[in-house]
Amino acid sequence: MTGKGGTGKTTVAAALALALAAEGRRTLLAEVEGRQGIAQLFETEALPYEERKIAVAPGGGEVHALAIDAEQALLDYLDMFYKLGRAGRALKKLGAIDFATTVAPGLRDVLLTGKVCEAVRRKDRAGWRSYDAVVLDAPPTGRITRFLNVNDEVAGLARFGPIHNQAQAVMRVMKSPETAVHLVTLLEEMPVQETMDGVEELRAAGLPTGAVIINMVRPVVMDGAAVASARDGQRTAIAKALSQAGLGGARRGGLAERLVDPLLAQAHEHAERVALERAQREELGSLGLPAYELELMGDGVDLGGLYRLAENLRKQGLGVA
């Protein structure tokens, strides 16, 4: 899940994880930006570097969460491929791990994506996958392609050995038909343009695009035709209606009369917004991707709201097995 900052990608990722976990399934929700956004949404304590159950979905499914830390992921990597164990922990105490992940940002992305893909591939003793779905709250759209495609670059640089094999394994997951990069946007010019650019970059890199999820959609109260009708000689009728609603007399200069112009101005602004949003929808429609919409929750998204968003996604068909 990616999206321009401020579009609510973490909230949508959490809602999708809940939707995918319905009816007894298990979902892992992972984050890589160190913001502890998942813990805040699910109203729980900060997540450690381990997979932890944080919610039960309708039908008894489970949502597990993981906040991936690049330093810890590097220690896992060193232990897995080079059997360093305690030696790796000693490097951490010396500051070498932090130095490596800071100086080489590409290495950081390799470690983060590698940890996610390990969870995707993991199986139990009976050969079943540990999770039915893994949802990644990924970096913003502006750097999503570089983030997901970094292992392709590493595989090209390291021609053999464990690093090369690890990078190739990660890219097999990233470019698998089972993977989809969903993009969260708002019906505003800048988020829509960033979504358009992001899809173009993902396609150019051979990464699988999924759906466009339009978040925080506001209801349409009245359209341009209704505003035009109100403006075309109906000021008197509007003042009369206001008066009948108990907002003062309809006489000239009365309260109802004074309310007409401000109300018409608001109606005009609303109609302009509706027209702009319609144009943005058409722009997104040109991508040829499935589109889903989530309503704006005026009071913010609490845990109950998160479940409502998940149910909304399921009703639209996203998150249904």
From TrEMBL:
What Pfam families does UniProt report for this protein, alphabetically?
ArsA_ATPase (PF02374)
Query: Where would I find the ArsA/GET3 Anion-transporting ATPase-like domain in this sequence?
Result: 1-175
Q: This protein's superkingdom?
A: Bacteria
Listed GO MF terms: ATP binding; ATP hydrolysis activity
Can you tell me which residues the record assigns to a coiled coil?
A: none
The name under which this protein is listed is Anion-transporting ATPase, ArsA/GET3 family
